Amino acid sequence: MTTTATARAHGVEATVHPGGILSSLSITTSALRRPDLATVILTVIDQATAEANTRIHHLLNGADPTLLGLPTPAPQPPETWRVQ
């Protein structure tokens, strides 16, 4: 069983698997000029992660996601790789 979710905003598109595992990232040329590009990328990844997590929890239909090595409901991507 696999699922992904895609979110896009301001020329940035991210597709992720549940738990925030990045599958693809697309950035338009115009988005590269944005001074807040890093923030936009993280926001788009967060949105896609939330959607992917919601989808997988719905597919599990009450099964304990930790039994499959999946995160508990709606975690965000790890803070350790984020630029502050």
Q: Could you describe the largest sheet, including whether it forms a barrel? A: 3 strands, antiparallel
List low-pLDDT spans: none
Domains, number:
1
Gap from first CA to last CA: 34 Å
Strand residue content: 15-25%
User: What is the strand arrangement across the widest sheet?
Assistant: 1-2-3
Radius of gyration: 14 Å
Q: Name the overall outline.
A: elongated
Figure out the total of helices: 1
Whole-number mean pLDDT: 80
Taken in chain order, the helices and strands follow as EEEH
Helix content: 25-40%
Helix/strand structural class: alpha+beta
Number of strands: 3
Structural account:
17% of the residues are buried. This protein is α+β, with helices and mostly antiparallel strands. It is elongated, with a radius of gyration of 14 Å. The model has no long low-confidence stretch (mean pLDDT 80). It has one helix spanning 37-60; strands at residues 5-9, 12-17, 21-27. A three-stranded antiparallel β-sheet has the order 1-2-3, covered by helices on one side. The longest helix has 24 residues, at 37-60. The chain has one domain (5-75).
A few lines on this structure:
This protein has 84 residues and is of the alpha+beta class. It has one helix spanning 37-60, and strands spanning 5-9, 12-17, 21-27.
Provide key terms for this protein:
single chain; 84 residues; 3 strands; elongated
Sequence-ordered SSE layout with sheet pairings:
Elements lengths: L4 E5 L2 E6 L3 E7 L9 H24 L24
Antiparallel strand pairs: 1-2, 2-3
